[in-house]
Amino acid sequence: MSERLDELEERISALRGEIRRAVRARESALTRSLRADLRTAERAWDLALAAHEPPSPGEPHDSRAGGGASARGRGAGPPPGREPEAGGGAGPMLPVRERVHQALTLLGVPSAARMLVAVHGALRAGPLKGTQLASLRRDEERSFRSSPFARPYYLCAALTDRLSASRGLFAVSTWPLERRVVGPLSARVDFLTSAVRVAEHVQRISGPGGEAPPAARRLLARMAQSIPGAVPAGSGFPGAEAVARAARAELDVHAADDAAARAEIARACERLTDAERLFGGTILSLAAAGRPGAERET
């Protein structure tokens, strides 16, 4: 195991150096190719490490390293180089950061750890715990600062109107800046957007005339409680189509004002460094951001 990991770590380190040189030389095609190679190497490293981790309580143990094809057939995870399909189980071999990335991609908005855990558990059928996310963003920031843009994406922070990191909210570095910042109305707008995305996903996995898995129905029902008009008059579960329709109706009320506030924050973020645009700066406020020599927090 250690020899394989050492070999992969050397490969990853070498690729990151080549990527930095290609970026400085403005060789875009080479950079894209090297990043693809880096993603493959990082995934191989994750798989090699996870193959030797002890199984979780209650999880069947396969004595063969990596489990082989038969273990994959029993749901131990996707074969190397393949992402699990939407709606399918993440599998125990998928790294935590990729599970979080899956949940964020499904929701499409900055989200708290509690929401990510709930969504991944209900719709991805994979294990994800809040404690696993505690240091994840700090690890991502350290990785970015040591090798900027070496990874295809980073799990970063949502930025507030103070241009600092919003406590507890995760975002994806590849999203437009306007989607990674939050204003006064953003919490409600993002919740409604999440409800629409969850409802649409439930419709996809249910199929025409089908019924969603119980965990997905329970998640949708919890979200519907906070959306006027989404809960049916009877005692049954709210339908995905009804939840999406009610959420879109309220979104129409708030979306324009929220977009304007986010655009203003995004413009102020232009003065930040690359790292600060992902993980937060120290400028006190938008008002301070517009003044030369604005005071910074210490």
How would you sum up the global shape?
globular
Query: How many DSSP E strands?
Result: 3
Average pLDDT for all residues:
78
Note the gap between the termini.
45 Å
How many helical stretches? 12
What is the N-to-C order of secondary-structure elements (H for helix, E for strand)?
A: HHHHEHHEEHHHHHH
Please state the structural category.
mainly alpha
Using only C-alpha atoms, the radius of gyration works out to 21 Å
Explain what you see.
- Mean pLDDT is 78; it is low at 56-92 and 284-298.
- The protein has a domain at 96-298.
- With 298 residues, the protein is mainly α.
- A three-stranded antiparallel β-sheet has the order 1-3-2.
- The protein has helices at 2-24, 28-50, 68-73, 96-107, 113-124, 136-146, 177-180, 186-206, 214-224, 240-268, 274-279, 286-289; strands spanning 111-112, 155-159, 165-172.
- The longest helix has 29 residues, at 240-268.
- α5 (113-124) runs antiparallel to α9 (214-224).
- The chain has twelve helices and three strands, in the order ααααβααββαααααα.
